[in-house]
Structures are given as structure tokens and as C-alpha cells.
Amino acid sequence: MSAGRKLRAGLIGLGAMGRNHARVLAGLDGVELVGIVDPAGDTTGTLRAPVVPELGDLLALGVDYAVVACPTALHEQVGLELAANGVSALIEKPLAQSVDAALRLVEAFEAASLVAGVGHIERYNPALQNLRTRLEAGELGEVYQVVTRRQGPFPHRIADVGVVMDLATHDIDLTSWVTGQEYTSVSARTVSRSGRLHEDMVAVVGQLADGTMVNHLVNWLSPLKERSTVITGDRGCFIADTLTADLTFYANGAIDTEWEALRAFRGVAEGDMVRYAIPKREPLLVEHERFRDAVEGKESDIVTLRQGLRTVEVAGAVLRSATDGSTIAVGTGTPSPAGDTLSTR
């Protein structure tokens, strides 16, 4: 790209998330949002850029990169067309609705030597970024457990995938990213209570490569909106609230208590509680800045398609486990040894 020229960006998808992308793209330094296409046929636009009928019309405008925010079931088709036309892409999470589709996207963009990323926005949440830095610095010591809770009302906009692919992929990606560890096994149970084809509640127990225990509780069935990540280790625990971007640390205390009944009730010695003051920039804006920099050829921390593929693999294992009641060794597609297999209910 010549010095001074703005990157020409396109947007595919005008749903709730697509309109947020349009808002950020329209004000992003060094970028011009030149056109939008909506596969669902929305032609009302956002007054931020012209809406064109087809993806081919968007490509004809000449775009350096595109943001793919259409339904997950369309990611593969749209992404492959972008790759075939030499257009870099930021694809909303999950990368695709199946491992095979995600792998085809990875291979297409790699073969074309294009910059491509996945919109796992929690990586840009200030609380989780700060938490990751503190874990890397050893502030928690050995990590024992990661527990996430992500629950809220049913989003009527989601029709093509269930809560595992749509919401739990957030928790799978952030857990692996924050700890720096890959999943090695998962076991899960799902239910569907909203009358839809796909699951709307899941409970997951997993293990990471270093032995850390993982628990995810995710649903679309709660009037309470909650986004919590709790990481426990030998020096205490961190609690990240990604709705408010607050990070709190509860330390294991060095001072014992002489009150026998209280000591038995509290268990681990209770130490100081610290809530950190963190600069709170909008995660979606940070995500776009990082991707813009990568397209410009600068060193930038984006979520690669291979990382997005890994998250889809783990989510696929969660769904398989829920179907057959077994513990799935991630990456092999086969159940763990019989001693780890759970009975089907």
C-alpha cells in the first residue's frame, strides 16, 4: 500500500454485530469503509457506506480487506470467495460451523498468502488482557482451575448454530489464550429447552495440557446476564468480569486466624482483595486496530485462522461428548481410555 493511502474495507453482514463493525470501521484511522453487502437481503444500510446487492459488487469496488459478520453457516462460502479474489479477511467467531469448513478456510487463505483473522473479541477485553499479563508474570503461581460462566437471555438473531458454537467458543478461546495452554480433553452435557434445533445450555469439564482443570457453564436461558472468568492458583484467585472489564484479585493470606470455627469455615487463609484500575478501551475498536495494522504489514497481535480452527475443534469435541456421553481427547476425535468415560444418561 502506498504511503498515505487509506485501506479500503468492505463489510459482509448487517446484523447486530455487523452494525457494530460498520460503526467502528467508519471511524477507524487509516481505513475507508467503501461498501457493505448483506446476505440476508438488508438494503437499508447504516448511512456509513453504500449497500450493494452481491459480494461480487463489493469486490468490484476494490477492497483491501473485508469483515465477515454474516451468519456462521455462510462463513465458508464467503471466506473462500474472498481468498480466491486476493482479499484479506477478519471473520467473526466462530471461524466456521464445522472443523472441515474451518480447515478449508485456513488452507485457502494460507495458500493465497493473505492476512486473515478471527473475531474472538474477548482477547481484547481489558480485564482479560491484564489478567493474562499477570499470569505470565507468575502472580498466581501454579494455576489449578479456570471456571467461566456465560449466561443470558436467548438471542433471536442466532438460528444456524447452538450455544456451544456461538457462545462457548468465546470461553474456549479465552481460556487457552489467557493460560497459554491447549485443551487435551473435554466432557460435556447439553440441553435444549427453547424449542430450537440446537442446544441452548451446556456444562463442560475439561483439562489443559499442564493439568489445569477447566469448567464452562454457558446458556441462553437465564434472565441474568453474566460474563465471569475465575482463575484459581496457589497464591489466590483472579476474577475477571468481562461485562464491566473489572479485574479483582483475592490473595491467599499469610496471617492465620486464632478463631477455630472461622478458620474451619474459611478454609484457605483469607488475604487482601485488590480491584485493579485498568484503562478500558472498547475491545471491538482494539480488535480492528490490530487487524488494520496486520493488513498494513506491521507486527500485530491478531487471532490467526489456525487458532480459530483449534477453537472450533474443541467446540466440536464438546458437542460429540454431549452426544455420546464420553470424554473426548481433543485433537484425536476418539474417546479417552475407558476409565475416563462417562456413562450416558
Automatic annotation (TrEMBL):
Spell out the residue ranges making up region: Disordered: 326-345
Q: Which InterPro entries match?
A: Gfo/Idh/MocA-like_OxRdtase_N, Gfo/Idh/MocA_Oxidoreductases, GFO_IDH_MocA-like_dom, NAD(P)-bd_dom_sf
Pfam families of this UniProt entry?
A: GFO_IDH_MocA (PF01408), GFO_IDH_MocA_C3 (PF22725)
Instruction: Please state the span of the N-terminal signal peptide per the UniProt entry.
Output: none
> Where's the Gfo/Idh/MocA-like oxidoreductase N-terminal domain?
8-120
- What are the residue boundaries of the GFO/IDH/MocA-like oxidoreductase domain, all occurrences included? 129-238
Which molecular function GO terms apply here? Answer: nucleotide binding
**Name this polypeptide is given:** Predicted dehydrogenase
Native organism: Micromonospora echinofusca
